[in-house]
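name: query_chain
kind: protein
chains: 1
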Amino acid sequence: MTDVTGAPADVLHTLFHSDQGGHEQVVLCQDRASGLKAVIAIHSTALGPALGGTRFYPYRTEAEAVADALNLARGMSYKNAMAGLDHGGGKAVIIGDPEKIKTEELLLAYGRFVASLGGRYVTACDVGTYVADMDVVARQCRWTTGRSPEQGGAGDSSVLTAFGVYQGMRASAHHLWGDPSLRDRTVGIAGVGKVGHHLVEHLLNEGAEVVITDVREEAVRRITERHPDVRAVADTETLIRVEGLDIYAPCALGGALNDDSVPVLTAKIVCGAANNQLAHPGVEKDLADRGILYAPDYVVNAGGVIQVADELHGFDFERCKAKATKIYDTTLAIFARANQDGIPPAAAADRIAEQRMQEASSARGRGR
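structure:
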């Protein structure tokens, strides 16, 4: 079901002609009093209620926001399936610059829209939203996770997101080089914000060489002042060309792997926290043709969603960390399936996730 009352023509075109189709429900939300404009996309509830974060971002157009919500929601279905969670995939985007328009009234209005879905969608943090924001949303909606410990939540999910990416890197190293150790490996991280700065710590603790970049100077400075041995470069274009780079970790926004970046990438492994790293279908083959091992983003960055899902049942950090540790084994299983089927790892991960969702749908159908 798609609620499209009053939707502009370009938004309708995006909804009904997107190559990210198959969504169960898309809700366009507007609250004039607070200035809220948002999109909630539910891709699948085959495995359970859709779970995914709320992105707050200044999209250029409403159609661009819808397209991002659709793409991100579909990715959450696959992520939750590969993480072994009893949740389908959903995502919400709030349109606007959070530094300028985010208010308590707007977040409360957003919470009311999520609540109106009756539990089909469970929301959490994403780019532009934080634990404090989820505490506000939760005042209007009990289907909110990623809250503060003071409000019964688990707090910052970026800690386990980074830990899961680290496990994915270790699995990738094991598959490619026969040894999971990252000691003396050179890792380039694009984006050292909520997740990236935790990833830096894991890598340094293991003895890796770390090179970083970020569009925000203060984010880079926070790392280099604490760790003078970390090298900073001007931008991602420079980072991906660093000589001797072993692993590239995109940890900012999506689309990092594209027709421009893949041909010049020096790393032999790509494993990062960013969602939707492949700019378009076919990039995964381009990586494979160049002999670059790609750890599917939605597999290795699942630590955060493991945490927020656990919060719904009474959060236990050690239990979550144990689940996130299994990302290592899941990543290795994907590489094995890719070799077995003669396909890139991204396609192998999709096949495994789709199989789990299909089996759940079939079981539900038989149970009726």
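note: The first strand starts at residue 2 and ends at 3.
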